[in-house]
Amino acid sequence: MNEKIEKLKKQYHDIPIPDELDGVVAQALFSHPRKKKFYIWPSSIAAAAMIFITTVNVSPDAANAMAKIPVLGKVVEVITFEELKQEEKHSRIDVKTPSISGLENKGLQTNLNEKYIKENEQLYEQFKKEMKTLRKEEKGNVAVSSGYDIMTDTDDLLVVHRYVEESRASTSSVNQYDTIDKKHEVLVTLPSLFKDKSYIKVISENIKQQMKDQMKHEEGKIYWLTEEDMDPFKEIAENQSFYITKDHKLRIVFDKYKVAPGYMGNIEFEIPTDVISNLLVGKRYIH
């Protein structure tokens, strides 16, 4: 094992660094996947610091060695495809783009990875437009952070959580979750879990009760429930953000400001399985 690890180290250090780098920075960030090497673009003194980090594709030798290290378990299925960091006087952006690998369903894998690239490309283009305005007016600040984490990784499920946090005059956040059935290699949606649309009302009523209970017993908890509130919560969306935990529980997610004041942050509610068991298509994912 030590010999294999040393071999991997040598392979890494032997990676050649090209004399010339690709031209335009944005194109370098968002070009379609090729075989990647590890590059660092040093910033000039006058320019903003920019660092692009591209994760090296795992070689067969590396994959085999990693698979034999007990602490790592299975070979990693989500890696950082590219990372962009840029900072100027009034602006800052930090964007990480995930990439899923190892699926035999290449259509699903490609669609997800292209979606992740496109989302961050659009985010960066919007950021560049705001930077131009800030440079001219020299007032105001903008900070954008986009990344991902793995909420669930079991033999059956992989849940990739992507988030965007933006700060201007106020802060906002957007969360998205992709739940993948690793055995059947399909994307699991909220409607696909249930027999019909009755889950919308049942889950919504349970969430309302949880909100009331929390406000009654926990100091500082506030949810927008009554008609007196600016935008009271009525029911979840058909495709409401959700994820399934490693313990096979359903969690419904609301972005900041959607159902509560901003200081409450992003909101999650775990739905008791006995509340929805009769509505589920089966017990494969939730039980």
Give an overview in words.
The protein has 287 residues and is of the alpha+beta class. 29% of the residues lie in helices and 26% in strands. The chain folds into two domains: 2-186, Heat Shock Protein 90 (2-Layer Sandwich); 191-279, Actin, Chain A, domain 4. It has helices at residues 2-13, 25-30, 60-67, 106-137, 198-217, 273-276; strands spanning 49-53, 78-87, 91-100, 142-153, 157-167, 171-181, 186-188, 242-244, 250-254, 267-271. It is flat, with a radius of gyration of 22 Å. The two termini are 40 Å apart.
Question: What's the structural blueprint in terms of helices and strands?
Answer:
Elements: H1 2-13, H2 25-30, E1 49-53, H3 60-67, E2 78-87, E3 91-100, H4 106-137, E4 142-153, E5 157-167, E6 171-181, E7 186-188, H5 198-217, E8 242-244, E9 250-254, E10 267-271, H6 273-276
Parallel strand pairs: 3-4
Antiparallel strand pairs: 1-2, 2-3, 4-5, 5-6, 6-7, 8-9, 9-10
In short:
With 287 residues, this protein is an alpha+beta fold. The chain has six helices and ten strands; from the N terminus they run H-H-E-H-E-E-H-E-E-E-E-H-E-E-E-H.
Which properties best describe this structure?
287 residues, Actin, Chain A, domain 4, Heat Shock Protein 90, alpha+beta, 2 domains, 6 helices, three-stranded antiparallel sheet, flat
